[in-house]
Specification:
The protein is of the alpha+beta class and about 375 residues long. About 35% of the residues lie in helices and about 25% in strands. The protein folds into 2 domains: about 140 residues, Creatine Amidinohydrolase, Chain A, domain 1 (3-Layer(aba) Sandwich), CATH 3.40.350; about 220 residues, Creatinase/methionine aminopeptidase superfamily (Creatine Amidinohydrolase, Alpha-Beta Complex), CATH 3.90.230. Helix 1 packs across helix 6, helix 4 crosses helix 5 and helix 9 runs antiparallel to helix 10.
Length: about 375
């Protein structure tokens, strides 16, 4: 476990007036304990009291992860498939005296199963959302986190540099996506952060398109949104390419989005807000007459989750602070014809910002 993060967690727990938090397998558990697991039919709950050592309810076959994390043996409530997990929940709730707790739980991750078991064996338990505590803890990335994300970005960019000369007219979206996945792994990624979005022509008008068997055709715009994982941290980049020769309007749309990206990045500094970033990018697109075709937020935070606060969107007036990492990804999407998105990963510094992505934003022709 990362003691520095645990000390900050204790501070946040006390500042928010709760007695502890409960985590389930996922990004927050990995971030705080180093325990990597996945949600399954075998429930796992890690509990951090404000004034005591952590305890965990965990299947016996994964108990070694809890020991490796440094959780004391008498606070590891391991259970087997034969005996089931109810006794482990009962013992943990009794030992921790959870009936007296106001417990923060992960509203976005905890299942009804775990919540019902905790309340069954701690009948006086009160719960609240733990997200404000966890997001305050994770919002500022330290030097190690930034270095890890920089490696993930560098791997993704190297893979794209290798992909570009291999793209040919007639290849399908699925073929391009498969090749990009392979190249990221060859370049050193632990895994891909998400299935690459590869969309061409009219398919690119859907921001979250899924690759299809549509072949790349002369005159298309090709949108590729990709990223990989390194030590649990993602990269998330989008570039749009011309497939052969494209018409003047599509080139104008591309240049509009490029300028919107530049303006969104340019206003990113300490004290600016997500709303400021969104408005700066959106204004460029609206001024060019394409406002109705930009219908998503300008960006999202990036960390142990691919989407997390802070969000670059209207009504987010929380000031940005050094260590915040987020995407700037304006787009224009014209149904039945084409789409363009350009996305960079940005970190707020003490006196401004730094783009973690370095790949050119100039229009590249492929095929």
């Amino acid at each position: 476990m990362n003691q520095n993060r645990l000390d900050k967690l204790t501070h946040q727990i006390l500042a928010h007036g709760v007695d502890g938090i409960a985590l389930v397998p996922g990004p927050n558990m990995a971030y705080l304990s180093g325990i990597h697991s996945h949600v399954s039919e075998r429930p796992i709950v890690l509990i951090y009291p404000a004034d005591d050592e952590p305890a965990i309810i965990i299947p016996g076959l994964e108990a070694m992860k809890a020991r490796a994390a440094g959780i004391p043996e008498n606070r590891i409530f391991a259970w087997s498939d034969d005996e089931g997990y109810t006794s482990a929940f009962q013992q943990a709730c009794a030992m921790l005296e959870l009936s007296d707790y106001l417990l923060g739980v992960e509203a976005l991750h905890m299942r009804v199963l775990e919540l019902e078991l905790l309340k069954r064996y701690a009948p006086g338990l009160s719960t609240t959302h733990a997200e404000p505590i966890l997001m305050a803890l994770r919002a500022v990335k330290d030097a190690e986190e930034l270095a890890t994300m920089q490696r993930a970005i560098a791997i993704a960019e190297r893979a794209m540099e290798r992909l570009i000369p291999q793209i040919e007219i007639g290849m399908t979206e699925k073929q391009v996506a498969a090749l990009l996945t392979q190249l990221q792994l060859e370049e050193g990624a632990d895994a891909i952060a998400f299935g690459p979005i590869v969309s061409t022509g009219p398919n690119a008008a859907s921001p979250h398109a899924v690759p299809t068997e549509r072949p790349l055709q002369e005159g298309d715009l090709l949108v590729i949104d990709w990223g990989c994982l390194v030590d649990g941290y993602p990269s998330d980049i989008t570039r749009t390419f011309a497939v052969g020769n494209i018409d003047a309007e599509l080139r104008h749309i591309y240049e509009t989005v490029k300028l919107a990206n530049q303006q969104g990045v340019a206003v990113s500094r300490p004290g600016a807000t997500g709303q400021d970033v969104d408005r700066a990018a959106r204004q460029v697109i609206e001024d060019a007459g394409y406002g109705e075709y930009f219908f998503h937020r300008t960006g999202h935070g990036l960390g142990v989750e691919g989407h997390e606060p802070p969000y670059m969107m209207e009504a987010n007036t929380e000031p940005l602070i050094p260590g915040n990492v987020f995407t700037v990804e304006p787009g224009i999407y014209i149904a039945g014809r084409a789409g363009v998105r350009i996305e960079d990963d940005v970190v707020i510094t003490a006196d401004g910002h730094r783009s973690l992505t370095t790949m050119t934003r100039e229009l590249i022709t492929v095929g």
